[in-house]
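Q: Please design a sequence for this.
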């Protein structure tokens, strides 16, 4: 009776884009599934889960033709399997999203021995689960699998969009309760699809907590801390699981890795790397593999990680850390997470094409504004300073700034100088910005957040966003502007706040007067 009513609900519900229209369901029997799987032969088995097994089959039905599907057969004798089947049926009655696996039909019948038989039939995901790609089994005969940085970021965005839909946009809000790589499937274009709603719970819209339902269990390593204390299922639990998933995707390490014990876990491992500015060292090395198109079958060759890669990894890890905060109230809503990940993708795609080494003497046209920046740390004074100077295409002075910084680091001061230079350019609506740097270190700092001083995380992200919206170029060259920038940074160590000059300050004029020949391209008057 329950399944009959569910089928009626499937056929009758069609309330807009958030409801699934199941009027075209293929009706399938136990006999049909048994024949299609060759009596559920192990040759057709593609996976085994907590409550049953999954088979890959081709269903041939009149008027529908052949369709490749995945059949999830529930092991009814296992405690909770029957409830899991009903829960998934109920969930798929209410949800439909491009990043959630689609159900084809269900089967509730008896087998040839009179035992209850229950199965769900899904569209088949050709590329298997994210788990198989992140942690391929040794000795597998299939072609090597790899997901590079951009692919993984796209999949993370897909999963985040699915959770945002479940938490914020369903007619009846849903919490998944068992998010992990094994429950993220990849279609033939490697788009991420969330699957397995056997532990899912409906939510109360007022407080986004499951009402009158038992606490979820989930999987070890991905379970939110509050669940272990008996808290009800909530969106915060899914956000925590997503945070751990995100960290796993980009480190390549499972939360259950043998290196983690007691208070040393995947989150603290990444958090320490962020603090030390060593995210490249903990990142999965396969992020930087690319397809070698000269060979067949597919092979991969290594490429050197760029500073833009480091920047984006720092942003991604930062999001993962926020999502996996111990306290639920410190975690972010999935709508916010989607926006942040999409912004990070824009940085990866846009900034990487804008920041590169070029060494011409002059910008290509008169609209360009040149800027030189620098930062210093005066150990004797116990203070850092930073500064920058702007010039037009002819080299004439347009403005300069200088300030102190309460972070004892020349690296942080150099980063802050670039941040403020881009901020001033943004406020002044200068659309063509040309940064001249005098060393490889500064160039690297521009491309990477170098989050050793975590205080600069948000500021640096805003800087990268602004760069992505500008026509921005960087020249790796030592010129007189770099000497001026250094003088401004040194002046900043003795200042109490931000100073802006519309005309050259006296200490810059004195540099010019002492060696006019050196500053021919930097006229002060």
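A: Design:
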């Amino acid at each position: 009776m329950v399944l009959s009513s569910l089928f009626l609900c499937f056929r009758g519900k069609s309330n807009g884009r958030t409801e699934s229209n199941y009027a075209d369901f293929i009706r399938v029997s136990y006999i049909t599934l048994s024949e299609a799987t060759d009596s559920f032969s192990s040759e057709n088995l593609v996976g085994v889960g907590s409550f049953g097994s999954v088979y890959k089959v081709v269903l041939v039905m009149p008027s529908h033709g052949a369709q490749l599907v995945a059949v999830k057969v529930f092991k009814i004798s296992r405690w909770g399997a029957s409830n899991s089947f009903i829960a998934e049926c109920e969930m798929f009655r209410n949800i439909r999203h491009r990043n959630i696996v689609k159900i084809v039909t269900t089967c509730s019948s008896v087998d040839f021995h009179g035992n209850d038989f229950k199965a769900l039939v899904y569209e088949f995901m050709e590329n298997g689960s994210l788990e198989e790609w992140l942690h391929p089994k040794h000795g597998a005969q299939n072609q090597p699998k790899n997901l590079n940085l951009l692919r993984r970021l796209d999949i993370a965005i897909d999963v985040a969009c699915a959770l945002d839909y479940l938490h914020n946009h369903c007619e009846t809000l849903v919490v998944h309760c068992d998010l992990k790589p094994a429950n993220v499937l990849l279609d033939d274009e490697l788009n991420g699809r969330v699957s397995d709603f056997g532990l899912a719970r409906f939510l109360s819209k007022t407080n986004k907590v499951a009402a009158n339902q038992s606490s979820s269990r989930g999987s070890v390593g991905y379970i939110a801390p509050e669940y272990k204390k008996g808290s009800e299922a909530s969106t915060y639990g899914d956000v925590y699981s997503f945070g751990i998933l995100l960290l796993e995707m980009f480190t390549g390490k499972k939360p259950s890795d043998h290196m983690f014990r007691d208070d040393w876990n995947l989150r603290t491992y990444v958090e320490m790397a962020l603090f030390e500015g060593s995210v490249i060292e903990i990142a999965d090395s396969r992020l930087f593999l690319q397809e070698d198109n000269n060979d067949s079958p597919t092979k991969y060759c290594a490429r050197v990680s760029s500073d833009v890669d480091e920047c984006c990894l720092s942003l991604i890890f930062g999001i993962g850390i926020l999502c996996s905060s111990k306290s639920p109230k410190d975690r972010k809503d999935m709508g916010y997470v989607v926006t942040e990940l999409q912004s990070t993708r824009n940085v990866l795609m846009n900034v990487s094409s804008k920041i590169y080494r070029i060494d011409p003497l002059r910008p290509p046209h008169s609209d360009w504004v040149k800027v030189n920046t620098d930062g210093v740390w005066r150990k004797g004074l116990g203070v850092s300073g930073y500064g920058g100077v702007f010039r037009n295409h002819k080299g004439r002075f347009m403005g300069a700034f200088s300030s102190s910084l309460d972070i004892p680091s020349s690296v942080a001061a150099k980063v802050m100088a670039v941040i403020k230079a881009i901020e001033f350019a943004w406020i002044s609506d200068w659309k063509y910005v040309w940064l001249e740097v005098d060393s490889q270190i500064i160039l690297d700092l521009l491309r990477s957040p170098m989050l050793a001083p975590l205080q600069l995380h948000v500021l640096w992200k805003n800087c990268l966003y602004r760069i992505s919206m500008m026509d921005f170029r960087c020249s790796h060259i030592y010129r007189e502007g770099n000497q001026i920038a250094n003088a401004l940074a040194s002046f900043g160590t003795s200042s109490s706040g931000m100073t802006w000059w519309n005309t050259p300050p006296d200490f810059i004029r004195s540099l010019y007067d002492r060696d006019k020949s050196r500053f021919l391209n930097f006229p002060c008057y």
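Q: Thanks. Anything notable?
A: The longest helix spans residues 149-168. Residues 161 and 238 are 13 Å apart (CA to CA).
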